[in-house]
């Protein structure tokens, strides 16, 4: 009785719309679909905050963790407001082939009882908002540590309005690509292709780092990257499963093939590293997971379990090939009894060991007991944990070699470069 009295008072003051209560029984509303998309919306936001933020934070230098986290949080806030102001309207209003219109600026015309299929349109707008948040956040990896904060925000605003929103309209808003019959279930074009293109353009415009590739910066915390990747994996269920916009068989199958593709790609990547380098790596297996998830996304609503296995198996191949070529280019064996791995401290050979082994033997750990000498424990630890292919028990410090003293020629040869 008291609650009813308060509601009536608020209605009289105009603080609660008269349409709010009847909306609970709106025609076409499916409470199961609504509940699932509510959950999926939270999962997709979880992908960015904190999933993607932690994933990237583990890959940068430790001094830049706060910067990376700030970029993600600020972009999430800014894109949310921008989506409400104009992004949603440009993407999902009007019937133009190339652009939407501004009929729904500030989500005008969307009330409590407005519907989009079997779910409230307000919920559909919120679900799509989470896609608009994570897509520019993906681009952060291309300019991380190298772009001023104000420039990041300006770029993200312009990119959402002039790239993301129009492409979303092309594919999902009834635009030109929808007319062609393009099938993009959960964002292969809208999210991954646009973000990937933007990242490539950013990388080209910013230019390569100083001293690259002679000096590279290894990930400072593979553990953080793994935690973030795990959150991405969980959130991706909302990303792909939620794109069915209902709680039916389509959502269930999309979720299943998403998981199968991620697991398959992770195992394949791990196996390739194991065969190539003698042991798998944490960063490698989570990279395979992301490759599998990205590959299956546009098809996740149109395939079954065999398709998920196939895409998980095949999706990693271009990435692993590039990775192997990059690793091959990094290792150089010099005539002064040093192995130089770009981006890591050089390691001297054990002066009593045989030098007759090739690149593949190094990567596989087939060094026949050879020890590689680092200048100090710090350098040795970097090589053990980051460059696993020559790591483990093969990397020691000069002090750990009983027959190598401070004046030993081999130990003196190991100097930073």
Largest pleated sheet:
5 strands, mixed
Helix content: 55-70%
Quaternary arrangement of the chains shown?
A: single chain
Specify the overall morphology. globular
Q: Uncertain spans, ≥5 residues at pLDDT below 50?
A: 1-26, 323-376, 382-417
Compute the average pLDDT: 75
Report on this structure.
It is a single chain. The protein is mainly alpha-helical and 417 residues long. It has helices at residues 2-12, 31-57, 65-92, 121-138, 140-143, 149-172, 176-179, 188-206, 222-241, 249-277, 282-296, 305-314, 317-330, 359-364, 377-385, 409-412, and strands spanning 115-116, 119-120, 331-333, 338-341, 347-349, 372-374, 395-397. β1 (115-116) and β2 (119-120) form a beta hairpin. The chain starts with a helix and ends in a 5-residue tail after the last helix. Residues 1-26, 323-376 and 382-417 have low confidence and may be disordered.
Please describe the structure with a list of short key phrases separated by commas or semicolons.
single chain, 417 residues, mainly alpha, 5-stranded mixed β-sheet, 16 helices, 7 strands, 58% helix, disordered C terminus
Quick recap of the structure?
This protein is mainly alpha-helical. The protein contains 16 helices and 7 strands.
List the helices and strands and how they pair.
Elements: H1 2-12, H2 31-57, H3 65-92, E1 115-116, E2 119-120, H4 121-138, H5 140-143, H6 149-172, H7 176-179, H8 188-206, H9 222-241, H10 249-277, H11 282-296, H12 305-314, H13 317-330, E3 331-333, E4 338-341, E5 347-349, H14 359-364, E6 372-374, H15 377-385, E7 395-397, H16 409-412
Parallel strand pairs: 6-7
Antiparallel strand pairs: 1-2, 3-4, 4-5, 5-6
Helix pairs in contact: 2-3, 2-4, 2-9, 3-4, 3-6, 4-6, 4-8, 6-8, 9-10, 9-11, 10-11, 10-12, 11-12
